[in-house]
Amino acid sequence: MEKTEIYKPEHYENRELSWLKFNERILGEARDKENLLFERLKFLSITASNLDEFFMVRVASLKDLVHADYTKKDIAGLSAKEQLAKINVATHEMINRQYSTYNRSLLPQLAENGLKVISHHEDLDEEQKKFVDHYFEENVYPVLTPMAVDSSRPFPLIRNKSLNIGALLKKKNEKKAEEEFATVQVPAVLPRIVRLPNDKDGNVQVILLEQIIERNINELFLSYDVVCAHPYRIMRNADLTIEEDEAEDLLKEIQKQIKKRQWGEAIRLEVEDGMEASLLKILKKELHIKSDDIYEINGPLDLTFLMKMYGMEGFDALRAPKHIPAAVPRLHGDYNIFDEIARGDILLHHPYQSFDPVVKLIQKAAADPQVLAIKQTLYRVSGNSPIIAALAQAAENGKQVSVLVELKARFDEENNIVWAKMLEKAGCHVIYGLVGLKTHSKITLVVRLEEEGIRRYVHLGTGNYNDATAKLYTDIGLLTCSQSIGEDATAVFNMLSGYSEPLHWNKLSLAPLWLRDKFLELIARERDNALAGKEAKIVAKMNSLCDKDIIDALYDASQAGVKIELIVRGICCLRTGIPGVSENITVRSIVGTFLEHSRIYYFWNDGKEEVYCASADWMPRNLDRRVEILFPIDHDSLKERIIDMLKILLADNMKAQIMQSDGTYERIDRRGKVLLCAQDYFTEEAKTFLEKAEKKDENSRVFIPAEPQ
Description:
By secondary structure, the protein is α/β, with parallel strands linked by helices. It folds into four domains: 10-119 and 299-319, Polyphosphate kinase N-terminal domain (Methane Monooxygenase Hydroxylase, Chain G, domain 1), CATH 1.20.58.310; 136-287, polyphosphate kinase like (2-Layer Sandwich), CATH 3.30.1840; 337-505, Endonuclease Chain A (Endonuclease, Chain A, 2-Layer Sandwich), CATH 3.30.870.10; 511-676, Endonuclease Chain A (Endonuclease, Chain A), CATH 3.30.870.10. It has 18 helices and 27 strands. The strands form four sheets. Strands 14, 18, 19, 20, 21, 23, 24, 25, 26 and 27 form a ten-stranded mixed beta sheet that branches. Strand 12, helix 12 and strand 13 (429-431) form a beta-alpha-beta unit.
């Protein structure tokens, strides 16, 4: 039987359109009435934040390609211009659904539950008007900077993502006065949600800051009559272009490029629905924006304010209880982390289990006189990172501390520059990433002098060293003092800090030099086993899948009969259900309370199962343009635990959505089935593990033998 031709554009999904489908799945959580009301607010806020970044980076890069007359098509057969046209239609439809959800579903339900949002200042009663006017005079007016535009005052810089109010003015007492334009930025330093006095029934009432300013805007232009005033907001190209080879100082170059984000090309203009045509015409002309890139919004601009509303006090029954990660069974109570790692590898499952052991490893290493050196890669860290503080303390204590701080971590550049300077000041050796590559790997090496000699303790993870997001993102971590992994970890840092490239690797596989080939070999092995009549299976979990070589290898394996189950949270350019091509492939996406971030790769290997975790997704950027690490889970008990995790994820029928053959996603029919939410299951499982461990005494903890040295 002749094999179906694989390499056709219609067999692939466009990356950007796939991402928009992912954001639609998040929007689906905002629309899902089974979710608690404030959780729905949170999901709607996330869709808005995601869309902002999508425009600033992805849409901006496509516009750059169009400007450069770049006509090469993507794997789905679309040029940049064609992609923009499809994105334009899809995003306008998505924004309409966002505001339909907000106006028709969330606002009425908020009111029913004791929280009334005054959508427009004209809806205020007399008592509220007095309160709002006083609030404006006392708190808002002193902060505002109204900017007029005339022959001596050019159109001002409108900052990226800032909320503004545009107005048309006429001089008072001049019948033939021409309309003049003025604008005022809604100050981000003030709370956007302003609480009004409760109504007579005790219900909480709020109004947005821009409505207060709009009501009192005449106070800013006393010599003028305000013809009209409407909020607007622009999005600019925020994709940094850094010529690393020509930059003498990468840190200074990135600092310079960050500032340019504020005056990058305007790529989207949001305006209040019903804005006067003459005002819109001025904005369109001055911002050099096309009609297709204008979004008329039926509601408040920038729905990310809903995350602030989510945090309002007094509505605990409307949101999920705050998640508290469970302690790791072998790492609770009074313990020495080095002794515990020496007893055997420890698997960490965040956010179900605490991130504290990772922080404690660095803190303990910083204070331990036996520790000689600490080496770590940092991609994104929290605003007040205890890991940064511990690394600085370690350097001050005389340890050899080497830290690779990735300055090119998008939208965290400024944060990382601050930490890099602080670590340098404390005496750490700081490396600012590698030319042409982002260092996305998550690895820590602690070198300790013990009675038997030097021992290396290593942490490897699928997520960032960020104690804040570790409570929100699902990730896997491994603590080990395996000699073979320790040797590889040393080689990794020697490669990052110098020019030393190892002749071979014991356990780890790194991008950009070896990881792509490793994945392709593992997939090909399953294909060959299937062709030989053996059982063959792949299960892979990741954030995104858009690498053509990997997709083609999966299609090839599927044609051979390999059963492939993919758990892909976001972008997926692979298509399922193509006759003769991908009939053996399923794709599911899980969108829930926590952000699915772990990368896990399982291969049946003729019954000798192999499990790997990684910092890398199956994307060209991860395999070709980043330093990434793939690490094996070798110990049988830990391997079985991860296999069990995959089984639970594949059995989820509450938050999982399955890709259909037309590229759409559908929820699972739950009728007659036992309901299972994987995230809830793992939350309870982590508590159960801890309870069982606490029933044992210190000498009978679950013991995992160390790998033979």
